[in-house]
């Protein structure tokens, strides 16, 4: 970025993805904070939350906390979710898109499609979870985010290895969900393949040790997503923006780095990708995924690897960089094309407007206390202690009670959580000993 060019000028530049014209380079990332109805429809609060960020200047918003299949709705660790798995949901999805388009802000609306939750799924109703290979998630094995604690640790149930029939069924379900999203008027489609979810489990040798055509080589590990991208592209046509969300780095011993993820993504891109939305780490390396450092991905060279592998024609969206100067510099030098924010836009829904209007001094900055994450992890309505209006954009929004608020405070208290962790780990040692005594 030249000394004569400001961050506001760079971030305020329009961006075209495929044929989709977006007014600026600041996007709201997907988050499971939308409070849909229990049966999976966008609620008044879902729409009000997104409208508030659109009115705050975001060029595009991702609709997070959504599922493409009945299986994903059933096994989701965060409930409820917005559903794309049946035609009956199209009118409600259309209402969401239409109300956002009617704001007069020219905001673009991206649908995010989850086929299944993979290693992060919760077995329910007599159904088991499935993944590329049988490997559990050890939460925070490489560290937890600031102010997040899991007393005693947590290991998810061991998934089954996905069968070829399951892979084919999920692919068709994603294709059908993409059709519903375009029918509802969404401007772009994103397939979720990040963190420890189903599609992400195929991309890295850390979680994929198959010996069939879906494991081993870069080409084989890319196959499942190359096939689904090609199938979705055939369904929605050549002109709808289609992208992929994936992790850029496992940040785990024996895991895959950005060069490996970029190589796999380059194979997938051949099937018709327009954009790639990058996240960092996963549930095993949560301190890297929910970082308190702006621009960490840039410092570690992760988006740079993707640019080298994908070339200039694939749009790259950068996350976890609320510092507008850092984001603008990465756009100006061609490393990425737009910045995508989550927690910062909980704290300040007017982030985009304040950056673009030169009002950064007025910004309400996320302090990375992560009370929002503790709420999400414990199924308490998500709010932000920096923004009392967050989670209350609609009068009908669900709100936490005093007892839940006290619990969330306690869950972020280091002394209380140290005691809880010691107690949980002591109990874990006692149980096997007692079991062996019988």
Characterise the protein shown here.
With 438 residues, this protein is an alpha/beta fold. It has 16 helices and 14 strands. The protein has helices at 7-11, 44-55, 70-75, 90-101, 164-183, 218-236, 258-269, 286-289, 296-299, 302-310, 324-332, 343-347, 351-356, 371-377, 402-411, 414-437, and strands at residues 15-17, 20-22, 26-28, 60-63, 66-67, 82-83, 108-113, 130-131, 160-161, 188-193, 241-247, 275-279, 315-319, 338-341. The chain has an eight-stranded parallel barrel with strand order 3-4-7-10-11-12-13-14, surrounded by six helices. A hairpin with a 2-residue loop joins strand 1 and strand 2 (20-22). The radius of gyration is 21 Å and the shape is globular.
Count of distinct strands: 14
The value of Rg in angstroms is: 21 Å
* Largest beta-sheet details: 8 strands, parallel, barrel
Give the topology string: H per helix, E per strand: HEEEHEEHEHEEEHEHEHEHHHEHEHHHHH
- End-to-end gap: 70 Å
Structural class: alpha/beta
Q: What is the 3D shape?
A: globular
Mean model confidence by pLDDT: 94
Fraction of residues in H or I helices:
25-40%
Q: Based on the structure, what is the oligomeric state of the protein chains? A: single chain
Q: Numbering strands along the chain, what is their spatial order in the largest sheet?
A: 3-4-7-10-11-12-13-14
What share of the residues does DSSP label as strand, in percent? Answer: 5-15%
């Amino acid at each position: 970025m030249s000394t004569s060019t400001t961050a506001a000028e760079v971030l305020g530049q329009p961006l075209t993805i495929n044929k989709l014209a977006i007014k600026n380079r600041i996007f709201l990332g997907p988050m499971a904070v939308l409070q849909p109805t229990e049966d999976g429809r966008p609620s008044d609060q879902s729409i009000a939350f997104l409208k508030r960020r659109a009115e705050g200047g975001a060029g595009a918003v991702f609709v997070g906390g959504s599922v493409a299949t009945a299986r994903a709705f059933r096994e989701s660790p965060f409930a409820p979710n917005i559903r794309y798995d049946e035609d009956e949901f199209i009118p409600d999805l259309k209402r969401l898109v239409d109300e956002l388009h009617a704001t007069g802000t020219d905001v673009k609306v991206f649908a995010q499609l989850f086929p299944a939750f993979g290693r992060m799924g919760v077995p329910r109703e007599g159904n088991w979870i499935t993944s590329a290979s049988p490997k559990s998630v050890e939460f925070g094995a490489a560290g937890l985010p600031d102010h997040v604690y899991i007393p005693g640790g947590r290991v998810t149930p061991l998934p089954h290895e996905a069968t070829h029939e399951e892979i084919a069924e999920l692919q068709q379900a994603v294709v059908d969900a993409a059709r519903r999203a375009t029918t509802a008027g969404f401007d772009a489609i994103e397939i979720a393949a990040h963190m420890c979810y189903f599609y992400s489990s195929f991309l890295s040798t850390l979680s994929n040790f198959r010996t069939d055509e879906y494991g081993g080589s870069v080409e084989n590990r890319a196959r499942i997503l190359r096939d689904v991208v090609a199938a979705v592209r055939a369904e929605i046509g050549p002109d709808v923006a289609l992208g992929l969300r994936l992790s850029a780095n496992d940040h785990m011993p024996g895991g895959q780095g950005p060069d490996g993820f970029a190589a796999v993504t380059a194979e997938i891109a051949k099937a018709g990708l327009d954009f790639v939305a990058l996240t960092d780490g996963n549930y095993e390396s949560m301190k890297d995924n929910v970082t308190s450092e702006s621009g960490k991905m840039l410092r570690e060279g992760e988006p740079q690897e993707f640019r080298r592998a994908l070339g200039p024609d694939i749009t790259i969206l950068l996350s976890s960089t609320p510092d507008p100067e850092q984001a603008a510099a990465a756009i100006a030098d061609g490393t990425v094309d737009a910045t995508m924010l989550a927690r910062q836009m909980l704290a300040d829904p007017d982030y985009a407007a304040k950056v673009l209007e030169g009002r950064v001094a007025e910004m309400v900055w996320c302090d990375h206390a992560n009370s929002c994450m503790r709420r999400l992890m414990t199924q308490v309505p998500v709010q932000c202690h920096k923004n009392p209006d967050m989670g209350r954009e609609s009068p009908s929004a669900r709100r936490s009670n005093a007892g839940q608020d006290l619990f969330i405070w306690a869950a972020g208290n280091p002394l209380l959580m140290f005691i809880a962790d010691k107690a949980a780990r002591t109990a874990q040692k006692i149980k096997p000993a007692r079991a062996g005594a019988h």
